[in-house]
Structures are given as structure tokens and as C-alpha cells.
Write a structure and sequence with these properties.
Layout: H1 2-16, H2 24-31, H3 35-46, H4 50-68, H5 73-79, H6 85-96, E1 131-135, E2 138-148, H7 151-167, H8 170-178, E3 187-194, E4 197-205, E5 217-221, E6 224-231, H9 236-251, E7 253-255, E8 260-265, E9 272-281
Antiparallel strand pairs: 1-6, 2-4, 2-5, 3-4, 3-8, 6-9, 7-9, 8-9
Helix pairs in contact: 1-2, 2-3, 5-6
Amino acid sequence: MEWLERMNRAMDYIEAKLADEISLEELAKIACCSTYHFQRMFPFITGIPLSEYIRRRRLTMAAFELKTTGAKVIDVALKYGYRSPEAFARAFRQHHGVMPASARDPGVALKAWPRMTFQLSVKGDVEMNYLIEQRGPFELFGVWSEISLNLQEAFGQVARFRKQCDEDGSVDRINGLLGRFGNCALHAALFDHKGETCKYMIGYHLPKGLDVPDGMSRLSVPAQTWAVFPDPQCELPKLWQRIYTEWFPTSGYEQAEGPQFEMYYGMPGYTQGEIWIPVRKKA
């Protein structure tokens, strides 16, 4: 219940600051977690990045204001954080499908993105296995692509990228360098989170003495404390959401900075998975 109250207070803060600067540090303070954890947690709980939610709320309120008042477009644009009418017009048209000046026209349809609230949902009827372990530094190598933090977009992008890596021979090359069968399962890393995107790497642990070939990248991972969540059924998209909506709120841990991993073991038809998240105890 405390977690719900904190998240709803964070949403109250966003609403109060839509026409002002929104401090990520203050949001995280209200939610009693680090800024890094809040940014990583928000998309898994809501399905969209925090910045996208704020953008949609501001454009919703801008449309209401244009529709119901005589405010000038330039004044509304500046009020909701746009430095020029042109930038505001592009964002407004992308969201609402019409130019700002047309918002007052009779019969024009506009889109309203409602304020989010968090409510109690009875869960916990399905156990969640996990372990906390210390791990020294290690390295991975492989190929990566940039993906969205919007979960609906990300799952499709990941599926297409994995298919591409199968078809262009990347998976076979990585397994060949490791001396394994070509269809052995590889790991995946999510790292370098920036704004609304991150990098998604398909690869494996880098053996000592192996030179990373051209066209592949190296990922160095520092010593960390990890929360490890096994999933014999390998239904990792569902597990990701359960971790952030069920485990983190009551665990006493928050996410630390660093890559996250989907560790896959086995071969097609006999694959098991784990999710690895760097964590630290809450202060």
C-alpha cells in the first residue's frame, strides 16, 4: 500500500508541474527510490517511457486549453515546454492529427491521454523464484541494435532483430567462435539506456584470449550484486513485468545502474531462461 501511495504522489507531482519543469530527482524522492530505478521501473509498470507519458499529458492539456480558452498558440506552446511554435505544431499534429490552430474548429476530434493512477491489484498467487548473488566483472561479445523503451514497440523490435541475426548468420558466427553448435541459445543484454531507447545485444560470455571480430562489439560488465530470476518456461516478457510490479515494490531492493540480461540456456525446443538485474538495497 505504501508503494501505491508513493507512486500516486509522484503522479500528483507530474500533474502539478505539467506547465513547469519536472524534476526527475524530485519524482524519485517522492517514490522513495533512485532516479535510475524510477526511470527503468516506469516503462515496465505502465508500458511507456516516463518522458513519453509526460509528453502525452502536456499535449492533452494543451489541446484542452486551446479548445476552451482564447489563449494564443505561441503562449500555449511556451507554457507546455516547447521553445518554438513550429516544434509545438509538429508534436501537436503527430499526437492529435491536426494543427494547433484547428483545435478550436467545430467537430475536430482530439486525443486525451488520461492521468495515470495506481490501484491495488491482488497478485502473489503465483510464486516467483529468485536469488541474490555477487558476481565479479565479466565481458560479453556480440551484435546489438537500438530498441525502444516503449514495451509494445520493443517486443516487436527484439523479435525482428533476433530473426535478422538468425538469417544473416550472426548467431552461427558467435557460436562458431565459441566452438558450439550453431543453434545453441545465446544471451541478450540491455544496456546504454538513453532517453527512450537502449541497446539490445545478442551474444555470449567472452572467453579469455578470443579477439572480438570486426562487426561485433564487446560489453564490459563491472562487479555487481544481481537479482536472478529463473524461468524454466522461458516466458521472459511476462516475468519482466512481474519483477517490476510484484517483486521490486516489496523486496527492499532497487535497480542499480548497469546492464540487464536475459540469459538463455539450451537449444530450440529445450530452452530455459533467466533475467539478471543489478540491484542494491534501498537506503
